[in-house]
Specification:
The chain is mainly β and 366 residues long. It has strands at 3-4, 22-26, 32-36, 39-44, 50-53, 58-61, 67-71, 74-79, 85-88, 93-97, 100-105, 108-113, 118-121, 125-130, 135-140, 143-149, 154-155, 166-169, 176-180, 183-188, 195-199, 202-206, 213-217, 220-225, 231-234, 238-242, 248-252, 255-260, 266-270, 273-278, 281-286, 289-294, 301-304, 307-311, 317-321, 324-329, 333-339, 342-347, 351-356, 359-362. It is built from no helices and 40 strands. A hairpin with a 2-residue loop joins strand 23 and strand 24.
Length: 366
Amino acid sequence: MKKLTILIFLFALIRPGYSQHLGAYTDYRDRFYIFDDGENSKVEDLKVQSFKIGGECVMYVNSQGNLKIYQDGKVSKLESGGVSKYFATDHIAAYLVFEKLKVVEHGKAITLSTRCPVYRVEDSLIVFYDKNLESLRVYYDGEIMDIESGMIGMPVDNFSSGDNMVAYISSRTKDFKIYYNGENHTILQYVEGLSFKAGKDIVAYKNSIDNTFNVYYRGITFKLDDFSPKSYKVGDEFVAYVDQMGVFKVFYKGEVLEVSSFTPTTYIIEDNLLVFTEYNYFKVFTRGVIHEVEAYIPRNFKLDWNTMVYLDNSNRLWLFTMGEKKYLTNELINSFEVYRDLIVMNVKVDRNLIYYQDEFYEGISY
């Protein structure tokens, strides 16, 4: 069977008004609660198998293996078992039953493909390979569009995604293409062994022809370096990379900034945040500014959207968001999660707290 090579970065037209009002937790008796814009609701009396928080819904598998969705204050059942994977993103709820890919529209499940071996669910769209039609397709805002057809064979499962772009290598022409703002753009012709990654409004790639490092940002191509980097990662409208000399750099909104002359011990990107460690310093790059957060490396930290939360050496919780650091609570922390800019904490002794829009809410437990 001829191998079909597809590497995918998603396109998603930008929608205003991102939601961040949903969270979920279980109490000491394993009852399942959903937090919705300041209100707590018990939705299951028995322990759920798993759950995922979206911007507009909460999806979960209950104790009986049924897939359910909470949306607009109501719970409905989507499937009675058989679900292999499910996704709740900023604007999309989707799931897979064997190779059948479904999306949820207005509380109802709609089948996108009955034979879908390769797919990716992102904030505002789904990119998937329909094996029946031999076509690479995009679902967005209730519509399905073909990106490229006649793709005979099985695509590889090695692909990557960003919020609002699709980048792939055509199996027919071997051209490297980027689908952005409703149009396909051929970036390189007949390439092999190409490395590329995407974020919001940006694709970074190593040119396998001349070994240069480049980005495609908002429709314009920039050459960042004459040599491929040692490593690179992509976020929302920026790329962080370590060049051949070990210098740590960031491409941000059309400019290359030197973050450090030293290679970071580690670096992580999530949405608008770049977190990196340099010797014993814990630092954050966000919106063009470097912040030195701590002079030690926290043993546990999590980040999403604009928010990073971490435990100090006394097991107390700190918050870093929008360039500011804040001591969050005196409570001793058992565990914590960040859902966009909302934080759910389990504290001593087995209580739940929710931090939402600069306010604390007590989880129900009785």
